[in-house]
Amino acid sequence: MKAVGIIVEYNPFHNGHRHHAEQARISSGADLVIAVMSGQFLQRGEPAFTDKWKRTQMALDAGIDLVIELPYVYATAQAADFAKGGIALLDAIGCDSFCFGSEQGTIDPFLNSLQLLTEQSDNYQQLIHDAIQTGISYPKALNNSYLTLTGKQPNFADLTQPNNILGFHYLEAAQNLGSSMKPLTIQRIGANYHDSIETGLPIASATGIREAFFKGDSVDELSTYMPESSIALLKKAQDEYSCFGSWEQFYPLLRFTILRAGPEQIKHYAEVTEGIENLIYQSAKTADNFESFISLVKSKRFTRTRIQRMLTHIYTGFTWSMLRSFDSPTYVRLLGMSNSGKHYLNHKKKNITLPLISRAADLGDPMGKLDIHATTMYLQGMGSVHLKKEFTTPPIYRG
């Protein structure tokens, strides 16, 4: 069986995600689609809108055949490491190709950019270093250095766009891994990554959908932009938790964690650098809600996304030393499967190059224990009384 892999968050699953999965299957000629999906915390440093099991069910209902979990250490990482984890898992499970949505829409500019930056690696790193010394943020330094090398020529990928950036890192990760998977991209349609909902369009960004809900729209009012099954599952999640995941929801616990730890402990958490622990601590003393807090901490040097990743690690207790202890994924964690996915696993099981884990009880190594802990902390933030849900929820099967 021929498989195409996609790397996703589904926060929540919407019509654009369904289009991506359908086009990935078509463009690759694959028999099934395998999704590596982030768990309870996401790459932009946020708690997921709803839990990984609801999002897995959304994916299966919309035609995804296998859903496996991207471990916390990669799901909450900056783009290059996020890509590294996702590509490693798709390669381990035997995908023939991987496909990502992009603003670029064609693969050749990405291949050209990868070749250029590989050949100019030393020069590129020096440009980045010099740019950072001027006081700009790391993402801005990357972009400026890249433009210096490419001169905005159209045969290179536009790495100012969020999906293009991730796509480039997918190709880079595959090259570094020595993977034989074929890279594919499809044109992203509808709303851009950060766009608010635009009335009348059937495809909105996940950011726009979450924003609309938190501004007062009901789940039913989002039905234009999401499959019917996704709407039903959001209603089920609302009944179970009485809330959806956000930093505003988690802020009382986050604030307590920051104030209890103090600057001396905060500086040991992953991604906390350059003395920002003092500002984080003082801001938590002052701000009684998350938006007030983040407005006190963010700056040109520290973007909102970068700060949110720090806060995620502070909240979960993930330290620099823990981060540095991980090199690559150590298992494939199965979250859900269709009939075709089940058949694929039975057919490919002996060729999967990492242990296939279907029960939380088998997540015995440090990476697995971290995933279990992250789920516990997520459920606590959501006000759940079922903190052992990781152990009581089997892989979801959609026959």
TrEMBL record:
Its main location: cytoplasm. It comes from the Bacteria. The keyword Acyltransferase does not apply. It catalyses: cytidine(34) in elongator tRNA(Met) + acetate + ATP = N(4)-acetylcytidine(34) in elongator tRNA(Met) + AMP + diphosphate. The keyword DNA-binding does not apply. ATP binds at residues 7-20, 101, 163, 188-189. Its EC number is 6.3.4.-. It is found in: Cytoplasm. SUPFAM superfamilies: Nucleotidylyl transferase. It is an enzyme of class 6 (ligase). Keywords: ATP-binding, Cytoplasm, Ligase, Nucleotide-binding, RNA-binding, tRNA processing, tRNA-binding. InterPro entries: Rossmann-like_a/b/a_fold (IPR014729), tRNA(Met)_cyd_acetate_ligase (IPR008513). Catalyzes the formation of N(4)-acetylcytidine (ac(4)C) at the wobble position of elongator tRNA(Met), using acetate and ATP as substrates. First activates an acetate ion to form acetyladenylate (Ac-AMP) and then transfers the acetyl group to tRNA to form ac(4)C34. NCBIfam families: PRK13670.1 (NF010191). Belongs to the TmcAL family. This is tRNA(Met) cytidine acetate ligase.
